[in-house]
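Input chain follows. Return structure tokens only.
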Amino acid sequence: AISGRLADLIRAEIGEQQGFIPFSRYMELALYAPGLGYYTAGSHKLGEGGDFVTAPELTPLFARTLARQLAQLLPLTGGTVYEFGAGSGILAADLLDALRQLDVLPVRYRIMELSPDLRARQQALLAARHPDLLERIDWLEQWPEQFDGVVLGNEVLDAMPCELVTRTAEGELMQTGVGCAGPDWQWQQRPVTEPVLAQAAAGRLPARGPYTSEIGLAAEAFVATLGRHLQRGAVILLDYGFPAHEYYHPERSRGTLMCHIQHV
């Protein structure tokens, strides 16, 4: 039922935008539309009963390794950990365990989480695992004016909406978007007109087309904003990817975009 309402919402926006929305907007709605998107509607996402699993869910060794780096950094800052997109809360719980053992507990552990469902899971897990540390843990509704501490993001960048751009065989840059014909979604392409996207695509896509790839303008803006707000400390963003020579390999001429359902 929720999926059907989300589809209706996306179709309505496509209609309002003359039959075309950029893929980035389609992805934003599919993941984050209030009360309807994948991360905001309460469906089970992580673990055996969900669609994917992240490294902290598999073993506490991930957090213990990361804690050794945090133990070096936190004393050089105001002592706060800021985690973006904390998933089930397992990384936070395991990090607090490891930092306690290293005798470098953070002054505060602050979480930015867009998903109401995941926020509730995080609160329940941390209350069960660390009831004595709850006065140090809080959830933020908006960006702080400044960060003084260590910013963490595990598998956050890959969940941010991206643009899909194609360089055609004739050398033209085309932005991929989504339209619909009745109940069916349709890929559509229009010339790239936004200057920032045009400049990024021209400088990154292979000179010879046809070639399609993703451009993460939202992720780049996120990192730039972190830089502006970071007064003192470090930013640690962990994700999967390729160096440029592999990312733009000829065999990846259709891009790297993918989705998972029930771990497939």
